[in-house]
Every structure is written in structure tokens, then in C-alpha cells.
Amino acid sequence: MATATQRTERLSSYNPATGEIVGSVPIHSQEDVDAAVARARIAAQSWSALSFEARNEELAAFRRAIAGAAEDLATIIHKENGKPELEAYVEVMMALGHIQHAAARAEKAMEPRKVSSGMLANFRATISYHPLGVIGVIGPWNYPIFTPMGSIAYALAAGNAVVFKPSELTPLVALKVEEIARKTFALPDLLQVVTGAGATGAALARSGVDKIAFTGSAATGKRVMIAAAEHLTPVLLELGGKDPMIVTEDADLEKAAEACVYGALTNAGQACISVERVYVASAIHDRFVDEVVKQVRDLKVGGDDGHLGAMTSPAQVGIVKDHLDDAVAKGAKIHTGGPDAISGNYIQPTVLTNVDHKMKVMTEETFGPVIPIAKVGSMDEAVKLANDSRYGLGSSVFGGKSARSIAAKLRAGMTSINSVMAFAGIPTLPFGGIGDSGFGRIHGDEGIREFTRVKSTSEQMMSIPLNMMTFRQPKDMAKRLRGMIKQLYGEGVVSKAGDFLRRLR
Ligand code: NAD
Question: Best mutation site among 138, 200, 212, 436 for ligand 1, i.e. most ligand atoms within 8 A of its Cβ?
Fold first, then answer.
């Protein structure tokens, strides 16, 4: 952002593995944010006037430039966030998939639709979608490029400009993306980054942008909504989760355990769609636990070839320890890891059994490398416990024939059957939650339309004798309408007019 260099207040970004400072960024004020939004507004006017094809071409160039900078981006993510480089590359690759999909799909998703005009058969009814203007994106630190790109790419593809406020823990990767955007897009202010902590995010939320796309915790999401209310700014909230995994008696045990271990421990468990709790059929519970523990013991924490990196923030380490201490105090059994296996920002992956919903580890977002496994007597019990949460983001079911019907009963925005997290990598599938996991959707056609305003147009194609939209009515019109109401909508009336109406729907 242009004014940034003039400011003296700065924020440091630390490497959680070493504690070293990776770099520093400006702390942007309300005035800076407002100026960025004003510049974005000008860019949005030109960008929205381009054809889909022209926008697609520029987004393709942006995608190629991001791909070209993959090594730099992965290195910065690794340093700022603490995740292994391999996971950083996975993140960059997934972000690229979404840029490509959003750009290619926007025209189709925003195509005007002709719909039935019902009773007003002489009208042509059309729904069309238009860019909103400027989108404020506020992002978290756990997937510092993939997560915000789920909003940024879809907002840009829909014809909007973006002002992005990354997490204060991972601002450098965002500035790298901004640098690439400035070089690639003809409009240098199309994608701008403002940096700082919560106050800068709050400034963006009340800046009067046309929509705020927020990803972060439920507590902050509520604050964002309050700030956005000042200008009646609509919000899209991608919040936390407590994703359940259900394993049925006839599941492939080894594969289910492998997916469970990955789903719970990737990014050291710091994913909004991490497997946070597991419900296993009693007949296979003990064998499943043995298999999970065996696979977890093969994992390495830390180092260049580690499967799990450092936790990104010391505060999160404190939350994980608190959940483990609480579980142990309430009778949970630790199979590997545990509260004593925490050293600095590194947490050894922990497997717990004998867990129940009186424990924080089964009800609150742990956001760490912890696998609590509960034994269930039936799949009805598993579904009941899985749905016993104020969150409703992702979920997964491993099993045979019954897996689909179990999946259908889960109260969640997304479910993976015989895999974990796959829905996040399928760009056609909308991503989002319910309850304390938020509302609105990124990804998919819904994710494109989320950044549009819907317009309805009714066009009279010909005149008909019965015109309700005039005061020049025959004297007996009220009587005629009385008859029509009964004929068209009255109970048990099977009239030609009724059939006609049903056909129109
Ligand atoms: P957070 O809520 O602490 O911060 C998120 C962002 O909000 C940061 O950029 C922060 O600076 C900003 N912020 C803080 N206070 C603000 C305020 N008053 N107004 C506006 N912005 C403010 O979240 P986090 O710790 O960065 O991320 C972890 C959380 O994000 C977890 O709960 C995780 O589940 C969730 N998450 C959700 C998704 C999803 O798609 N649903 C994806 C990733 C992470």
C-alpha cells in the first residue's frame, strides 16, 4: 500500500520455530484503510466494466505469476507460520486451483437466468448478477494464502476490487501476493493489502466496503459483524469448527486411521476443518485406536523433514494444553503425546480415549495436534454426538453402505465420505458452515455469487386484458377477483386455471 512506507509504527512477523523476526510491516490506521478503499473503488469501476474474457486473461496472468513465485511464497509461509515446506506448497497449489476455477467459471455462474413469470405470463422475468464493488477480506494465519484466496479470487473473478487485511502473524506472505498483483494487473489498486492487528481489521470492517469476507474465530466474527453494521455492510463469516469423524463397523480400518491421522494433524491440527473428534463403532474401537497410535508414533515433529511443524502462536499452545489438562482431569486416557509432551511451540501429537462431551477437547475448538476418540454403541449415537455442537463446518464418515445415509444426517456445511477434507480442494463445491461456524459460502458458483448483487428484471412483452397495475379497472373488478382467488387458490379446487398455474411454477 502506497502510504505504508511513510508510517513509523510497525509490526514484526516472527518465525514460530526459532522466535526470530522474519520481517516487519506497517500498522495501518483507519485513515490508511479508507484511502486504500477509495483507490479500490476507482479500480473497481474499470475492472467491472471489462468483459469476463478480459478479466479471465488478467487472472490467468496473476495465476501464472503466483505459480512462478511458488518457491518464495512457500518459504515465507514456512517461516511465518511454522508449517513444513511441503504443507506450504500444498497450500499454494490449492490456492492456484481456486484462482483458475473462479476465473474460468465466473461468466457461467453470473449468467443471467430467465425464470417463470407465474401469473404475469405476459412478462419476461430475468435474474442477473453484478459485482458489488469493493470487497474487504480479513484473513487468518493458519492457511495464510489458501484461505483468503477463497474470497479474493472469487471476488476478483466476479468483477470486484479487493482490500485484504491478513493476520498480524502472517502479513509478509500477503505483501508478496500484493506485489505480484501490482505487477500483473493493469490496475495496480485492484488488490491491495493493509497490515496491522485487530484494529486495522476493525477499520476495514467499518470502512464502508460493499462486503466483508471474514475468516477467523467466532468471537472475532461477532465483533466484525458489529463493526460492519455501522454501514449495513453485508458479511460472509468463515469461522471455526469442531469437525467430527464417524467410523462405522465395516470401514476399512487402516485407511480410516490414515485419514484420521492426516485430518487431525495436518498443519499441526491448526485447520478450521481439522478432524477434532472421532466416534468409532465399539466393535472396532480398540483396533482403530491401536492403528491410529501406531501411525502417529511414526510421525516426526519439527526439523526440515518433520511431518508437523511448530505451532504458529504461543497462545494456541496454551489453549491446547488447557484442553488436554481438562480432559485428563476428567478421566481421559492418553495413549501417546499428552500435556507433558509440549515443549515451547512444539506439541507432540496426542491420542486420547475415554473422552466425553463434558470435556473441552470434545466441545471447544482445540486447533492443535490432538485426536480424541470416543467409543459409540450405535451409529444413531454417533450422529447424535456429532451433531451435539454449536459449530457445523466440516465432517467425515468412514464406512460401507451406511456411510451415505449417516453423512446425510450430519448437521454441517460439508461432509467427506471415506476421506477427510476433500471438499476444500474441489473448487466446484461451496465451502462454509452453519451455527458458530458462520454463514455464506466461498468456492463454487455460490462462492462467486456471494460477491455479487442480485438484480431482478420484469419486462412486459405484450398487453393482456387483465392488467392489475392500473387504477383504470372495470367496476366489477373486485367481484371478478373474488371469483378468481377462489378458483386459483381455493381449497380442493381443481380448475383449468389452477392447472395452468401449476404448470407455470
Ligand atoms: P482471529 O479471529 O484471531 O483473527 C482473524 C483475523 O481477524 C486476523 O486478521 C485479525 O487481525 C483480525 N481481527 C482481530 N480482531 C478484529 C476485529 N475486532 N475486527 C476485525 N478484524 C479483527 O482468528 P485466527 O486466530 O487468525 O484464525 C484462527 C481461527 O480461524 C480458527 O477459529 C479457525 O477455525 C478459523 N478459520 C476458519 C476458516 C474457515 O474457512 N471457516 C479457515 C481458516 C481458519
Answer: 138
* CB-ligand 1 contact for 139 (6 Å cutoff): yes
Is 167's C-beta closer than 6 angstroms to any atom of ligand 1?
A: yes
Q: What share of the chain is helix, strand, coil (3-state, %, to 5)?
A: 45, 20, 35
CATH of 243-390+394-426, one of 2.60.120.10, 3.80.10.10, 3.40.720.10, 3.40.309.10: 3.40.309.10
Encoded amino acid at 479, one letter: K
Nearest CA to ligand 1 atom 41: 238
Over residues 215-241, the pLDDT tens digits come to 999 999 999 999 999 999 999 999 999
**C-alpha angle 144-337-85 in degrees, rounded to nearest 5:** 30
Residues 337-390: pLDDT tens digits? 999 999 999 999 999 999 999 999 999 999 999 999 999 999 999 999 999 999
Ligand 1 pocket, residue 138 CB under 6 Å: yes
CATH number of 27-240+444-454: 3.40.605.10
For 50-84, where are the alpha helices, taking DSSP H only?
52-68, 70-81
189: Cβ below 6 Å to ligand 1?
no
Give buried/exposed letters for 14-41 (b at 16+ CB in 10 A, else e). Answer: bbbbeeeebbebbbbbeebbbbbbebbb
- Name the residue at shortest CA distance from atom 15 of ligand 1: 198
Domain boundaries of the chain, sorted by first residue: 27-240+444-454, 243-390+394-426, 463-504
Query: Which atom of ligand 1 is found nearest the CA of 168?
Result: 11
Residues designated as active site: 238, 272
- Condensed to tens digits (0 to 9), the pLDDT of residues 23-41 reads 999 999 999 999 999 999 9
Q: Dig out the grid coordinates for 391 from the structure.
A: 459449530
- Whole-number Å distance, alpha carbon 70 to ligand 1 midpoint, is 24
